[in-house]
Amino acid sequence: MKTAFITYALLVLVLMSPVALLAQHKDSVKTLEKVTVGSQRKKPTFTAITPAQSLNRQTLQQINAPSVGDAARFFSGVLVKDYGGAGGLKTVSVRSLGAQQTGVTYDGIAASDAQSGQIDLSKYSVTFVQSIDLQQANAQSLLQPARGYAAAAVLSINTLSFSTEALQHTRWQAGLKAGSFGLWQPAAGMNLVLPKQMAIGVNAEALVSKGNYPYYIDNGSSSLHTKRENGEMRSFQGEVNLLKQFKDSATWQVKLSGYNSSRGLPGVVVFYNERSVQHLWNSDYYVQSRYRKFFNKNTTGLLVSAKASRSYTKYTDPDYLNNAGGLDNRYTQYEYYLSAALSQQIKERLTLSAASDAAYSKLNSNMSDFAYPARKSFWNSLAVNYTRPLWQINGSGLLTTINDQVKTGAEANTISKLTPAVAFSGKLSANSPFMLRLFYKHVFRMPTFNDLYYRVIGNVSLQPEYARQYNVGLVYCTSFKGAIKHFSISADGYYNSIKDKIVAIPNKNLFVWTMLNLGKVNIKGIDVTAEADGALSKQVAWSSRIAYTFQHALDVTDPSTVTYKNRIPYTPDHSGSALLSFNYRHWTTGYSLLFSGTRYVLGENNPYNQLDGWGIHDVFVSRQINIKQYGLQIKGELNNVTDEKYDVVRYFPMPGRSWKISLLINNL
User: Fold this and answer.
1) Is the separation of the CB atoms in 603 and 640 below 8 Å?
2) Which residue, of 18, 202, 449, 577, has the fewest CB within 10 Å?
3) Residues 202, 200: Cα–Cα separation, whole Å
4) H or E element: which one contains 5?
5) Alpha-carbon distance 634 to 637, whole Å?
6) pLDDT of 558-609, one tens digit each?
């Protein structure tokens, strides 16, 4: 608790200091106008009609974020479940709605997992990522796949390869990272400009880590220091991207991507028993493509998207007690996806859009009596946006139809639901620095294959889980002359209500569980994000960013239970992050903070289930060296400077103090 208090005090000092209301330097603020496919510039995130946050490439290089899951922790309203280490699984929940309610897109096309409904963000490296964006409710562009309207929030991962900036000139880079616990991470990539407005990009990255970081078990007189077992990680990922721009400015993009990994799964820490032998293999491949064209003097837009993917997972546990001598479970998941979207601008202020998506998913396994489920999913959306000089309003309706089929056993009923959303933003005058924004959105999530068909615990009678979102926010953006150039801050209060929450409860005994629609959760919170930038002199520039969340996520299922109006597991009242960096000539140095308050590991909020808060402090320094037409960046990091002992998930200790050195060379 003492560490958490110190962390809170440091954050307050950062918030109150006129120097630390410093956020990104000037070019960082410009990159908030993120470039998407086709290089169409968007409004800054602070003036978006619904809450939006963004981390650009410069910021991603400054924070301790080897994966997208690590970077997402710097967004307000985001909770990341992290099981520790380079290969630790990382799933994201936005505003406590659950990982299954958070959509993830990679270069504009949705990533999916029909088996678990959760995307493991540890698979996505940030090495070649240009920006990571988090959008509440609906995206700003009406020209998008219908599937994008299905999620409560969308985390977008954007690379250069799907932007027409890739057509400007040939680029290449190569780098190596080395660090504590046997970490080695080489990477290389090239974007080659071809004749006839074409470009091809190739990149690859490998990661090797022993993951044997030390940790401390506190058990009074029997306390001991030991090292994490079974934390080794080996992975390789690569991509080939093709971009073509036609004479009419239409663009066509194709991506081939592969990911392979072998990782040990460190088990829960049990005193005097450090044995852990579970292992996980992943082999994921997909091809995706998009075609976008504007015609009729750019008043009509067409977007066609397609994707085919295959994901293989193997999980072994030799210690599992069964007649087969342990577990050796293998799953292969296939998905085929197609989308078409059309937008039409009517006069100057009114824009309409319609989209239709279809997906087919199936899951195979080597398990006996497996259901072999297959799912046909259809999304059809209509959206409208009306803009005036001082205000705008948009609304959407999404019709979702889900149909399951199985080879053995019973199958879930077909589900067809219509869910609406509406958003508004406005200013009192054209020069006012204040903006008010509101939104309401109704979403649902279909039970996953595991929820419905997993052996013993699956329940084919499950109903969808519904969530209603309400948000009211105030934004302030202004510019200054002097040490502070730009300053922006947003505060969004929200209320989420979840009905028919899907939960796992004991059935016959503690070893036999089943999935049921039992939960009701009410979530109230405030997200605050602030950014600023400036220059202390002609040679010294600075930037900073602050994100803070206050939240109450309460179980209101049954007044007669001990968990009634208790906080749901792993949802702290207070959490947030802070970034501060300085540039001097070719030198950059910076500091970052991540913190979380007290939370509970189970629905019953008693002292035994309480997990203490924590605060992590990281620092870095980098040097840019330019030699003729080449640039070399050398960077050193010291992470978890105070060697904080903490768990994100109980009994899964996180790494303590560590270091990392990276070298990056590229053409200028």
Assistant:
1) no
2) 18
3) 7
4) helix 2-16
5) 10
6) 899 899 999 998 899 999 999 999 999 999 999 999 999 999 988 899 999 9
- H/E element, 606: none
Instruction: For 389-426, give one letter per residue: b (16+ CB within 10 A) or e.
Output: eebbbbbbbbbbebebebeeeebbeebeeebebbbbbb
> 3-state DSSP call for residue 28?
helix
The continuous run of DSSP H or E covering 218 comes out as none
Predicted confidence at residue 87, as pLDDT, reads 64
Report in angstroms the alpha-carbon separations of 312 from 51, 320, 451: 36, 22, 19
Task: Write phi, then psi, for 160 (nearest 5 degrees).
Answer: -70, -25
pTM: 0.89
CA distance 499 to 467: 6
Contacts of residue 5, Cβ cutoff 8 Å, sequence gap at least 6: none
Among 95, 108, 191, CA closest to 521 = 95
Burial letters for 213-228: b for 16+ Cβ neighbours within 10 Å, e otherwise? Answer: bebebeeeeeeeeeeb
Write phi, then psi, for 123 (nearest 5 degrees): -75, -20
Whole-number Cα distances in Å, 632 to 60, 90, 359, 502, 623: 18, 31, 45, 51, 8
Average pLDDT, the chain: 87
Alpha-carbon distance of 384 to 285, in angstroms, equals 36
CB of 482 closer than 8 Å to CB of 518: no
Residue 551 near residue 93 (C-beta atoms within 8 A): no
CA distance 443 to 148: 11
Look at residue 650 in the predicted model and tell me its pLDDT.
Answer: 84
- SS3 of residue 144 by DSSP: coil
Instruction: Identify the burial level of 482 via C-beta atoms within 10 angstroms of its C-beta, where 0-12 means exposed, 13-18 middle and 19 or more buried.
Output: exposed
- Rounded Cα distance, 370 and 410, in Å: 12
Compute and round to an integer the Cα radius of gyration of the chain.
Answer: 24
Q: Which secondary-structure segment (H or E) carries 254?
A: strand 251-264
Token pair for residue 62?
Answer: 């400054």
For residue 122, the model assigns a pLDDT of 87
Q: What's the pLDDT score for residue 506?
A: 61
pLDDT given at position 4: 45
Low-confidence stretches of the chain (pLDDT beneath 50): 1-43, 508-511
From residue 562, alpha-carbon distances to 115, 505, 523 in Å are 32, 15, 18
Q: What is the C-alpha separation between 95 and 77, in angstroms, rounded?
A: 5
**Three-state secondary structure string covering 330-367:** EEEEEEEEEEEEEEEEECCCEEEEEEEEEEEEEEEECC
Q: Which of left, alpha, beta for 372 (phi over 0: left; psi -120 to 50: alpha)?
A: left
| CB neighbour list of residue 297: distance below 8 Å, 6 or more residues apart | none
Residue 50's closest CA among 126, 191, 153? Answer: 153
**Residue 167: both structure tokens together:** 């057509």
Round to whole Å and give the CA distance between 550 and 535.
31
